[in-house]
Write a structure and sequence with these properties.
This protein has 334 residues and is of the alpha/beta class. The chain is built from 15 helices and eight strands. It has a domain of 219 residues: TIM Barrel (Alpha-Beta Barrel). Helices cover 50% and strands 10% of the residues. Strand 1 and strand 2 form a beta hairpin. The model has no long low-confidence stretch (mean pLDDT 98).
Length: 334
Protein backbone atom coordinates (compact mmCIF):
# COMPACT_ATOMS: atom_id res chain seq x y z
CA UNK A 1 0.00 0.00 0.00
CA UNK A 2 1.28 3.45 -0.96
CA UNK A 3 0.33 5.77 1.86
CA UNK A 4 0.13 8.85 -0.37
CA UNK A 5 -2.42 7.05 -2.56
CA UNK A 6 -4.39 6.16 0.57
CA UNK A 7 -4.25 9.80 1.68
CA UNK A 8 -5.60 11.04 -1.66
CA UNK A 9 -8.28 8.34 -1.65
CA UNK A 10 -9.34 9.48 1.83
CA UNK A 11 -9.80 13.02 0.52
CA UNK A 12 -11.58 11.93 -2.70
CA UNK A 13 -14.11 9.48 -1.32
CA UNK A 14 -17.50 10.58 -0.02
CA UNK A 15 -17.49 8.30 3.01
CA UNK A 16 -15.76 9.55 6.15
CA UNK A 17 -12.96 7.51 7.67
CA UNK A 18 -12.29 7.27 11.40
CA UNK A 19 -8.93 6.81 13.10
CA UNK A 20 -9.38 7.17 16.85
CA UNK A 21 -6.17 7.20 18.88
CA UNK A 22 -7.08 4.06 20.71
CA UNK A 23 -5.12 1.07 22.03
CA UNK A 24 -6.15 0.58 25.66
CA UNK A 25 -9.42 -1.23 24.84
CA UNK A 26 -7.32 -3.73 22.88
CA UNK A 27 -5.12 -4.33 25.91
CA UNK A 28 -8.23 -5.08 27.95
CA UNK A 29 -9.60 -7.41 25.24
CA UNK A 30 -6.35 -9.39 25.57
CA UNK A 31 -6.68 -9.57 29.36
CA UNK A 32 -3.41 -7.68 29.86
CA UNK A 33 -2.38 -4.57 31.80
CA UNK A 34 -0.99 -1.30 30.47
CA UNK A 35 2.34 -2.20 32.08
CA UNK A 36 2.35 -5.46 30.11
CA UNK A 37 1.77 -3.66 26.82
CA UNK A 38 4.28 -0.83 27.27
CA UNK A 39 7.06 -3.24 28.24
CA UNK A 40 6.42 -6.02 25.69
CA UNK A 41 6.29 -5.49 21.95
CA UNK A 42 4.47 -8.79 21.54
CA UNK A 43 1.69 -7.89 23.99
CA UNK A 44 1.46 -4.40 22.48
CA UNK A 45 1.08 -5.79 18.94
CA UNK A 46 -1.49 -8.35 20.11
CA UNK A 47 -3.54 -5.54 21.67
CA UNK A 48 -3.42 -3.40 18.52
CA UNK A 49 -4.42 -6.34 16.31
CA UNK A 50 -7.17 -7.52 18.65
CA UNK A 51 -8.72 -4.05 18.65
CA UNK A 52 -8.37 -3.88 14.87
CA UNK A 53 -10.37 -7.12 14.59
CA UNK A 54 -13.07 -5.77 16.90
CA UNK A 55 -13.66 -2.29 15.44
CA UNK A 56 -13.46 -0.75 11.94
CA UNK A 57 -10.77 1.90 12.38
CA UNK A 58 -9.28 3.02 9.05
CA UNK A 59 -5.82 2.58 10.57
CA UNK A 60 -4.67 0.97 13.83
CA UNK A 61 -2.40 3.07 16.06
CA UNK A 62 0.11 2.28 18.80
CA UNK A 63 -0.14 3.59 22.35
CA UNK A 64 0.60 7.29 22.76
CA UNK A 65 3.37 6.75 25.31
CA UNK A 66 5.38 9.95 25.78
CA UNK A 67 8.02 8.38 28.03
CA UNK A 68 9.78 5.95 25.67
CA UNK A 69 12.22 8.47 24.24
CA UNK A 70 12.87 10.27 27.53
CA UNK A 71 13.62 6.94 29.20
CA UNK A 72 16.08 6.14 26.40
CA UNK A 73 17.95 9.35 27.26
CA UNK A 74 18.13 8.22 30.89
CA UNK A 75 15.07 9.79 32.52
CA UNK A 76 13.52 7.90 35.44
CA UNK A 77 10.12 6.47 34.56
CA UNK A 78 7.49 4.82 36.75
CA UNK A 79 5.17 2.11 35.44
CA UNK A 80 1.73 1.95 37.09
CA UNK A 81 -0.04 -1.31 36.35
CA UNK A 82 -3.03 0.25 34.61
CA UNK A 83 -1.94 3.72 33.49
CA UNK A 84 0.58 4.99 30.97
CA UNK A 85 4.10 5.46 32.38
CA UNK A 86 5.32 8.87 33.55
CA UNK A 87 8.67 10.62 33.93
CA UNK A 88 9.34 11.31 37.62
CA UNK A 89 11.96 14.07 37.49
CA UNK A 90 13.99 16.17 35.03
CA UNK A 91 17.20 14.67 33.69
CA UNK A 92 19.01 17.90 32.77
CA UNK A 93 18.95 21.34 34.36
CA UNK A 94 21.78 23.53 33.05
CA UNK A 95 24.36 24.04 30.32
CA UNK A 96 26.75 21.44 31.69
CA UNK A 97 24.18 18.66 31.95
CA UNK A 98 22.78 19.48 28.49
CA UNK A 99 26.26 19.50 26.95
CA UNK A 100 27.01 16.14 28.59
CA UNK A 101 23.73 14.57 27.50
CA UNK A 102 24.42 11.65 25.17
CA UNK A 103 22.15 10.81 22.24
CA UNK A 104 21.03 7.24 22.98
CA UNK A 105 21.23 4.27 20.65
CA UNK A 106 18.08 2.56 19.42
CA UNK A 107 18.94 -0.47 21.57
CA UNK A 108 18.27 1.51 24.75
CA UNK A 109 15.45 0.98 27.29
CA UNK A 110 12.08 0.14 25.69
CA UNK A 111 12.84 1.44 22.19
CA UNK A 112 13.41 -2.11 20.83
CA UNK A 113 10.05 -3.25 22.24
CA UNK A 114 8.21 -0.39 20.55
CA UNK A 115 9.98 -1.12 17.26
CA UNK A 116 8.96 -4.76 17.71
CA UNK A 117 5.32 -3.76 18.30
CA UNK A 118 5.37 -1.72 15.10
CA UNK A 119 7.00 -4.49 13.07
CA UNK A 120 4.69 -7.24 14.31
CA UNK A 121 1.59 -5.12 13.70
CA UNK A 122 2.72 -4.17 10.19
CA UNK A 123 3.30 -7.87 9.43
CA UNK A 124 -0.18 -8.85 10.64
CA UNK A 125 -2.30 -5.95 9.33
CA UNK A 126 -2.10 -5.90 5.55
CA UNK A 127 -5.37 -4.32 4.41
CA UNK A 128 -4.94 -0.84 5.89
CA UNK A 129 -2.20 1.54 7.09
CA UNK A 130 -0.58 1.14 10.50
CA UNK A 131 0.56 4.25 12.36
CA UNK A 132 3.34 4.21 14.93
CA UNK A 133 3.86 6.89 17.56
CA UNK A 134 6.62 9.09 18.91
CA UNK A 135 6.99 12.25 20.96
CA UNK A 136 7.81 15.60 19.35
CA UNK A 137 11.12 17.41 19.93
CA UNK A 138 9.79 20.25 22.09
CA UNK A 139 7.71 17.90 24.22
CA UNK A 140 10.71 15.59 24.62
CA UNK A 141 12.82 18.55 25.74
CA UNK A 142 10.08 19.29 28.30
CA UNK A 143 10.31 15.74 29.64
CA UNK A 144 14.08 15.97 29.97
CA UNK A 145 14.32 19.53 31.34
CA UNK A 146 11.00 19.81 33.16
CA UNK A 147 8.13 21.57 31.43
CA UNK A 148 7.79 24.51 33.82
CA UNK A 149 11.55 25.00 33.81
CA UNK A 150 11.59 24.84 30.01
CA UNK A 151 9.03 27.64 29.72
CA UNK A 152 11.30 29.93 31.72
CA UNK A 153 14.51 28.78 30.04
CA UNK A 154 13.18 29.70 26.58
CA UNK A 155 13.61 33.34 27.59
CA UNK A 156 16.49 33.10 30.08
CA UNK A 157 18.83 30.64 28.36
CA UNK A 158 17.52 30.00 24.83
CA UNK A 159 20.93 28.92 23.54
CA UNK A 160 21.00 25.97 25.98
CA UNK A 161 17.49 24.91 25.00
CA UNK A 162 18.50 25.05 21.34
CA UNK A 163 21.31 22.57 22.06
CA UNK A 164 18.84 20.32 23.89
CA UNK A 165 16.34 20.52 21.03
CA UNK A 166 19.03 19.65 18.50
CA UNK A 167 19.93 16.52 20.48
CA UNK A 168 16.29 15.54 20.83
CA UNK A 169 15.78 15.98 17.10
CA UNK A 170 18.82 13.93 16.13
CA UNK A 171 17.51 11.05 18.22
CA UNK A 172 13.97 11.39 16.85
CA UNK A 173 15.26 11.30 13.27
CA UNK A 174 17.12 8.07 14.05
CA UNK A 175 14.07 6.65 15.81
CA UNK A 176 11.62 7.59 13.05
CA UNK A 177 13.91 6.11 10.42
CA UNK A 178 13.91 2.86 12.39
CA UNK A 179 10.12 3.06 12.75
CA UNK A 180 9.85 3.48 8.98
CA UNK A 181 11.94 0.36 8.45
CA UNK A 182 9.46 -1.73 10.47
CA UNK A 183 6.97 -1.47 7.60
CA UNK A 184 4.40 0.85 9.18
CA UNK A 185 2.99 3.62 7.02
CA UNK A 186 3.48 6.64 9.25
CA UNK A 187 4.10 8.01 12.70
CA UNK A 188 1.85 10.11 14.91
CA UNK A 189 4.22 12.63 16.46
CA UNK A 190 2.78 13.95 19.73
CA UNK A 191 3.87 17.54 20.37
CA UNK A 192 1.37 18.78 23.00
CA UNK A 193 3.85 21.01 24.85
CA UNK A 194 4.10 23.24 21.77
CA UNK A 195 0.50 24.23 22.45
CA UNK A 196 1.60 25.93 25.67
CA UNK A 197 3.60 28.62 23.85
CA UNK A 198 2.73 31.27 21.28
CA UNK A 199 2.58 30.57 17.56
CA UNK A 200 5.80 32.55 17.09
CA UNK A 201 7.63 30.55 19.76
CA UNK A 202 6.12 27.32 18.48
CA UNK A 203 7.51 28.07 15.01
CA UNK A 204 10.93 28.70 16.53
CA UNK A 205 11.16 25.96 19.15
CA UNK A 206 8.94 23.22 17.73
CA UNK A 207 8.23 23.56 14.01
CA UNK A 208 11.89 24.15 13.13
CA UNK A 209 12.75 20.75 14.58
CA UNK A 210 9.59 18.85 13.61
CA UNK A 211 10.25 19.88 10.01
CA UNK A 212 13.70 18.28 10.18
CA UNK A 213 12.10 14.96 11.11
CA UNK A 214 9.45 15.34 8.40
CA UNK A 215 12.09 16.06 5.77
CA UNK A 216 14.13 13.05 6.90
CA UNK A 217 11.36 10.42 6.72
CA UNK A 218 8.21 11.58 4.92
CA UNK A 219 7.79 10.35 1.35
CA UNK A 220 5.35 8.35 -0.82
CA UNK A 221 5.72 5.36 1.55
CA UNK A 222 5.59 7.07 4.96
CA UNK A 223 3.87 10.12 6.45
CA UNK A 224 4.15 12.16 9.62
CA UNK A 225 0.91 12.97 11.45
CA UNK A 226 1.57 15.91 13.78
CA UNK A 227 -0.56 15.83 16.94
CA UNK A 228 -0.90 18.87 19.20
CA UNK A 229 -3.73 18.59 21.72
CA UNK A 230 -2.43 21.71 23.48
CA UNK A 231 -3.34 23.93 20.52
CA UNK A 232 -6.49 25.91 21.29
CA UNK A 233 -6.32 27.56 17.86
CA UNK A 234 -3.42 29.92 18.47
CA UNK A 235 -0.65 27.83 16.88
CA UNK A 236 -2.32 26.07 13.95
CA UNK A 237 -0.05 27.98 11.57
CA UNK A 238 3.00 26.47 13.28
CA UNK A 239 1.53 23.00 12.80
CA UNK A 240 0.88 23.62 9.11
CA UNK A 241 4.41 24.96 8.58
CA UNK A 242 5.85 21.63 9.79
CA UNK A 243 5.10 20.07 6.42
CA UNK A 244 3.48 17.03 8.05
CA UNK A 245 1.07 15.29 5.68
CA UNK A 246 -1.63 15.11 8.35
CA UNK A 247 -2.47 17.28 11.35
CA UNK A 248 -4.20 15.91 14.43
CA UNK A 249 -6.04 18.26 16.82
CA UNK A 250 -7.19 17.92 20.42
CA UNK A 251 -10.58 18.75 21.88
CA UNK A 252 -9.51 22.26 22.95
CA UNK A 253 -9.91 23.56 19.40
CA UNK A 254 -12.96 24.28 17.26
CA UNK A 255 -12.64 21.70 14.49
CA UNK A 256 -14.23 23.95 11.88
CA UNK A 257 -11.69 26.67 12.64
CA UNK A 258 -8.87 24.14 12.41
CA UNK A 259 -10.09 22.91 9.02
CA UNK A 260 -10.49 26.46 7.73
CA UNK A 261 -6.86 27.20 8.65
CA UNK A 262 -5.32 24.07 7.10
CA UNK A 263 -4.53 23.35 3.43
CA UNK A 264 -7.07 21.14 1.69
CA UNK A 265 -4.39 18.64 0.64
CA UNK A 266 -3.53 17.74 4.27
CA UNK A 267 -5.56 15.32 6.30
CA UNK A 268 -7.04 17.11 9.32
CA UNK A 269 -7.98 14.81 12.19
CA UNK A 270 -9.82 15.18 15.48
CA UNK A 271 -11.20 15.87 17.98
CA UNK A 272 -13.73 14.18 20.28
CA UNK A 273 -12.90 14.40 23.99
CA UNK A 274 -11.29 11.07 24.99
CA UNK A 275 -12.02 11.50 28.71
CA UNK A 276 -15.04 13.75 29.14
CA UNK A 277 -16.92 12.06 26.30
CA UNK A 278 -15.60 8.53 25.77
CA UNK A 279 -14.93 7.67 29.41
CA UNK A 280 -17.39 9.79 31.39
CA UNK A 281 -20.45 10.11 29.14
CA UNK A 282 -23.25 7.78 28.06
CA UNK A 283 -23.34 5.97 24.73
CA UNK A 284 -26.18 8.26 23.65
CA UNK A 285 -24.03 11.31 24.35
CA UNK A 286 -21.10 9.77 22.44
CA UNK A 287 -23.37 9.07 19.47
CA UNK A 288 -24.78 12.60 19.47
CA UNK A 289 -21.38 14.30 19.82
CA UNK A 290 -19.90 12.15 17.06
CA UNK A 291 -22.78 12.83 14.69
CA UNK A 292 -22.67 16.55 15.46
CA UNK A 293 -18.96 16.72 14.67
CA UNK A 294 -19.47 14.83 11.40
CA UNK A 295 -22.28 17.20 10.40
CA UNK A 296 -20.28 20.30 11.33
CA UNK A 297 -17.28 19.19 9.26
CA UNK A 298 -19.01 17.68 6.22
CA UNK A 299 -18.00 20.57 3.95
CA UNK A 300 -14.32 19.59 4.24
CA UNK A 301 -13.22 16.57 2.22
CA UNK A 302 -9.92 16.26 4.11
CA UNK A 303 -11.44 15.63 7.54
CA UNK A 304 -10.82 12.33 9.35
CA UNK A 305 -12.90 11.58 12.44
CA UNK A 306 -10.78 10.92 15.51
CA UNK A 307 -10.44 11.39 19.22
CA UNK A 308 -8.67 14.49 20.51
CA UNK A 309 -5.96 12.38 22.15
CA UNK A 310 -5.26 8.82 23.26
CA UNK A 311 -8.36 7.15 24.70
CA UNK A 312 -7.64 6.18 28.35
CA UNK A 313 -8.08 2.73 29.89
CA UNK A 314 -11.50 1.32 30.84
CA UNK A 315 -13.70 2.94 28.21
CA UNK A 316 -17.21 1.40 28.11
CA UNK A 317 -17.48 -0.80 25.02
CA UNK A 318 -20.91 0.66 24.25
CA UNK A 319 -19.30 4.10 23.88
CA UNK A 320 -16.87 2.82 21.26
CA UNK A 321 -19.75 1.11 19.47
CA UNK A 322 -21.79 4.34 19.56
CA UNK A 323 -18.87 6.23 17.98
CA UNK A 324 -18.69 3.79 15.07
CA UNK A 325 -22.49 3.55 14.75
CA UNK A 326 -22.67 7.33 14.30
CA UNK A 327 -19.99 7.08 11.62
CA UNK A 328 -21.87 4.28 9.83
CA UNK A 329 -25.18 6.15 9.92
CA UNK A 330 -23.56 9.37 8.73
CA UNK A 331 -21.91 7.60 5.79
CA UNK A 332 -25.20 5.95 4.81
CA UNK A 333 -26.80 9.40 4.64
CA UNK A 334 -24.15 10.84 2.35
Amino acid sequence: MEIQEWLQETIRQKERRAIPIMTHPGIELCGKTVRDAVTSGMVHADAICRLNEQYPSAAPTVIMDLTVEAEAFGAKVIFPEDEVPSVTEPLVSDKESIDNLQIPSLDTARVPEYLKANRLTAERVKDKPVFAGCIGPFSLAGRLFGLSELMIALYVEPENITVLLEKCTRFLIDYCRAIKETGVHGVIMAEPAAGLISNEDSLLYSTTYVRQVVEAVQDEHFIVILHNCGNAGHCTEAMVQSGAAALHFGNKIDMQDALANCPEDRLVMGNLDPVGLFKQSSSEEVYTATMNLLQQTKAWKNFVLSTGCDVPPHIPAENIEAFYQALTNFNRSM
